Predict the structure.
Amino acid sequence: MKASAGGVVLVLALAAGVAARVAGLWTDFWLDEIWNWNIARGHGYADILLRVPYDANHILNTLWLRAVGVREWWGVYRLHSLAAGLATLWLLWKIAVRWGRLEGALAAALGAASFLLTLYSSEARGHTTMVAFALAAFVALESWLRGRSPAAYAAWAASVVLGFFSHLMFAQAYAGLLLWSLWRLRRAPGGLAALHAPGAAAAAFLYVVQVRGMGHAGGLAEPTRLILRDTLALATGAPDSPLAWAAGAAFLAAAAWAARDLRRGGRDEWSFFAWIVFGAPAILLALHPPGLLFPRYFLLAGTFALPLCARAAAVAWRAGGAARGAAAAAVGLFVLGNAVRTASFLKDGRGHYLEALRFMAASSGGREITVGSGHDFAHRMMVSFYAPRVPEASFRYVPREGWTPGSPEWVIGHAERHTPDSPPELTAHNGSRYRLERTYRYSAVSGWDWRLYRRVTSTSEP
């Protein structure tokens, strides 16, 4: 690939990736974000840091939401994630460009195309800051190991502390960085204690104030095999079908080949990449309780696999012939598959909750609108968030124990997986029949499909 052509392709890929991330700010706020927002509103800074031991409290994210305050446009709550997402693209380039200019360009382009990185770069949670600080910690550690400069140490210390406070899954990356530094300094361990003091202090602090008494929100319990298929599909852009296994195998094979190539070239960072892409996920699968596993738990593995795949593609491109064609096809399929997912995300986002409440308001003619669901905790929170944004109506959420034969008027059904059909009518536990009025789709990963059912009024009612 000529330098000028490659530069144009990179600029276009980055521009598209940035545009998608910015556009994602306007998608609807959804449950996990609203939950973090409620924590931020209901607690002071010290409480957020010390007294909210819950997995929904991504501390750095919650502190940001607390500092921002109440805003009409919820995109403001996501700006820190956008900044971290843009930094992630630069850091992917920074890591891979050390191996070659083409490797750097491909790593940045793959990151820009990634649907998962796009999604979390426009979400008010801790995942993207965790990724950015993990990449920054890698870059800073590599720099410190090479020259032991104070600036590199400061960058390293800040990255690991902020990474832990972004999300506890940062521990996956930190364990790999610890192993890499132990290996590099095995013959001259001077400085190891000082190097890892910030990370050890952050981990110990979070264990005491958060992990030790942590409650878990749970989720839809699904077979591990299905979660793994979804993870591979999301990481590669493959469809949610058996094709995801083949795409995932090719993706991981390319990453494994590149890690082995680094080792053959005498670059000891191969040990970190082997850990974060293969070791940490294997241990997570072995130790994590069934039913509490989600694709986002493998986000760091998928992200650090991108520079490895960029290296494999660059080496294949330089080899020419069939290898060049295979590399071009693989990169093209990755970009195309992720573009399809990103287009769906920009269309349906995390759901259409505000639109759903406006539909209920328009259909109910200005009366008090009673709403219920089969998931009081989640939907009461979401209705409470969006109701003030529909000033022409008055919404009242009715918990399940408060249902009567005449209330609620509307019932929200939700689904985390798209199903082709919803029952046109249902009979609720209050004895009333409800008819499906409208279905609102979401894209994938973050959000729900909402199905709005309205109570069927009998002819004897006034």
About this structure: The chain has a mean pLDDT of 93. The two ends are 74 Å apart (CA to CA). The CA atoms of residues 160 and 361 lie 48 Å apart. DSSP finds 18 helices and six strands in the chain.
